[in-house]
Amino acid sequence: MNRNRFAPDRGLTTRMVVTMFLIGLLYVVFVGALLVLLQGSWPVILVIAGILFIAQFWFSDRIAAFSMGAHEVTPEQAPELHGVVDRICALGDLPKPRVAIADSDVPNAFATGRNQKNTLVCATTGLLRRLEPDELEGVIAHELSHVAHKDVAVMTIASFLGILAGVVTRIGLWGGFRRARDPGTAALVVLVPLVSAVVYVISFLLTRMLSRYRELSADRSAALLTGRPSSLASALTKVSGQIAAIPTRDLRKVEPFNAFFFAPALSGGPSISRLLSTHPTLEKRLEQLGRITLELDRR
């Protein structure tokens, strides 16, 4: 087992195990329902499921980088960013990941990869332009905390069932089931999308709950590792404020990556954000960092 100096979080580990168990159980029920409903068509669904899982798990880092327009950079091309990554990796005793920059004015960062040896950490040009060195260090420490805690891989796997359910729903609505006219197949047109929709909603809510907690955990680990929670709080405040000034059409382009971002590109209103948001509220994150500051001061 790889060891590092990022503060462990038993609460996060427990939540990841519980989430994976529940989603695994949901997956078994889902496949069982497909076997009963689809009968002769189920091999096609299993093949589609296998292809999707392999593509998402093994190529998630490349897919995310390509979709964001990120390109890997050398230490000569981005000395400041590489310097920050080197310092955090040295502090946290973590293997250095590949480093990339995305040409986007939306100030943000993300890390992706199935394990520590296949990790990519990326910052946008908007983030690099706006943050001070100590603030950037806090953001990179936050992203590498996700890698150290292995929650990036867990989130990738956990979101797989939701993607599969969405694909099956489309097959049920627009695929061959629509063309059949006998009563049995007509029932499939209703039942398959219905089962898939229920599975999608449950898996969506489970991954959102895990996502919100893992962001708080990464904030805490980054603050303790760098010893400067105020710098991370400053970065959070600055990034959130700057994102609010970005045109909505630009934010919608990157919104699908919210779950992997340092700060959400778009968030709902107060009543809905707690349930559907990928991140806790800014106030909650700043409150936690304030408590960590007091904790470090007492030490």
From TrEMBL:
Pfam families named among the record's database cross-references: Peptidase_M48
The keyword tRNA-binding belongs to this UniProt entry's keyword annotation: no
InterPro entries: HtpX_protease, Pept_M48_protease_HtpX, Peptidase_M48
Domain Peptidase M48, residue spans: 75-290
Record-annotated active site: 143
Subcellular location: Cell membrane
Cofactor: Zn(2+)
EC number: 3.4.24.-
GO molecular function: metallopeptidase activity
Family to which the UniProt record says this protein belongs: Belongs to the peptidase M48B family.
Protein name (database record): Protease HtpX homolog
Origin species: Streptomyces polygonati
